[in-house]
Design a protein that fits this description.
Blueprint (H helix, E strand, L loop, with lengths): L125 H24 L10 H6 L3 E2 H5 L5 H4 L7 H22 L1 H22 L5 E2 L3 H17 L1 H26 L7 H17 L11 H4 L1 H18 L7
Antiparallel strand pairs: 1-2
Helix pairs in contact: 1-5, 5-6, 5-7, 6-7, 6-9, 6-11, 7-8, 7-9, 9-11
EC number: 3.4.21.105
Pfam families: Rhomboid
GO molecular function, one term: serine-type endopeptidase activity
């Protein structure tokens, strides 16, 4: 028996005797067709590769608008007659970006438009710079006031008379009606070293929080947190102590960032969780270090941190959809003001025993 050897470029299948043929329920293939004058027998070539069927565009649908195709083979005009690139990856606005086959070009799929807006983190933190400038200006006033009454202490420190005359927090004076000292104490600093450390912390935390939460929420957290720290220091602190510094408001910024990333930990993913862990670690380390320094007002730090944590978590965010009215979205501010007013009333009437 001779062995069949296909020839090059030979597409003819071997002839099959009639006695070996049988009827098939399937349509005959090209090599099953009986030889005839019109279609001579061809030998089967197992090495022949059938070409892929040509893909064609789907049937015309009068209810679907026309599609703009992108063809990289024509770099001069890849979008056909329209020289402007399509704004939705070649799809019209009302057509699904994932449906249909496109002939003559490459189908471009754009990711879905995010439903949560993203803040412009490139904006300048104007509020942070403004507060830094105000603190620096007040420090120059302190310097001039101290220089007019005597010499400046070591490391640019000021005496108690200068601080009290310019608005430092002193418990007996606040109880006598000088409630404004709860606010003015946030802008005063006891020495050059004091303002340098607070300024660096305010610059770092303030830019971060202002870019993430916006200027309005930054101002609410900074000033309400600073007032909460002064209030807690006034009510529970040493009656004879004099307290100054922006550290209560700065701890409010730290608490605001912790509350913000705690509330958005699933939106920011791994980056948000890393930021949250870093901020919590920073807060713990600062309290451990500052508790060992007797001159530090840790009650002001604690009050600012708790208020900032509350506001940072519950204030409305641009990263979430809003459903309530604008006034209702800021319910956390009204709630904190009510608590602060109640505590001020209790502290002013000495209904709370000092610790």
């Amino acid at each position: 028996m001779s062995e069949y050897k296909p020839e090059d470029n030979d597409n003819t299948p071997p002839s099959v005797p009639d006695e070996y043929r049988r009827e098939s329920p399937y349509p005959p293939k090209s090599w099953d067709t009986l030889p005839s004058a019109e279609s001579p027998a061809k030998k089967f070539n197992p090495y022949r590769i059938e070409p892929e069927p040509e893909k064609t565009a789907p049937a015309y649908n009068p209810y679907k608008p026309p599609v703009t195709f992108y063809n990289p083979a024509n770099p001069q005009n890849p979008y056909g007659q329209n020289n402007n690139p399509p704004t939705n990856g070649g799809y019209p606005p009302d057509q699904s970006m994932y449906g249909g086959y496109r002939s003559g070009g490459v189908q471009q799929q754009q990711p879905p438009t995010p439903t949560v807006p993203v803040r412009n983190v490139q904006s300048s933190p104007i509020v942070t710079y403004t507060i830094l400038g105000a603190i620096g200006f007040v420090f120059l006033v302190e310097f001039a006031f101290q220089a007019g009454r005597g010499s400046i202490g070591a490391l640019g420190s000021f005496n108690l008379d200068t601080l009290i005359n310019l608005g430092a927090l002193q418990k007996d004076m606040v109880r006598q009606g000088e409630i404004w000292r709860l606010f003015t104490a946030m802008f005063l600093h006891a020495s050059l070293l004091h303002i340098v450390f607070n300024g660096l912390a305010l610059w770092s935390l303030g830019m971060h929080l202002e870019q993430q939460m916006g200027r309005t929420r930054f101002l609410l957290i900074y000033f309400l947190g600073g007032l909460s720290g002064s209030l807690l220091s006034f009510g529970l602190g040493n009656p004879s102590a004099v307290s100054v510094g922006a550290s209560g408001a700065i701890f409010a910024l730290l608490g605001g960032l912790i509350g913000f990333y705690l509330n958005h930990r699933f939106i920011f993913g791994q980056m948000g969780r890393s930021q949250l862990n870093s901020l919590v670690f920073t807060a713990v380390i600062n309290f451990v270090i500052l508790l060992s320094i007797p001159q530090v007002d840790n009650l002001a730090h604690l009050g600012g941190l708790l208020s900032g944590l509350f506001l940072g978590y519950f204030l409305p965010s641009d990263y979430r959809q809003r459903s309530a009215g604008k006034a209702l979205e800021y319910w956390a501010v009204f709630a904190l003001l009510i608590v602060m007013g109640a505590l001020l009333y209790l502290f002013m009437n000495q209904h709370v025993t000092n610790l």
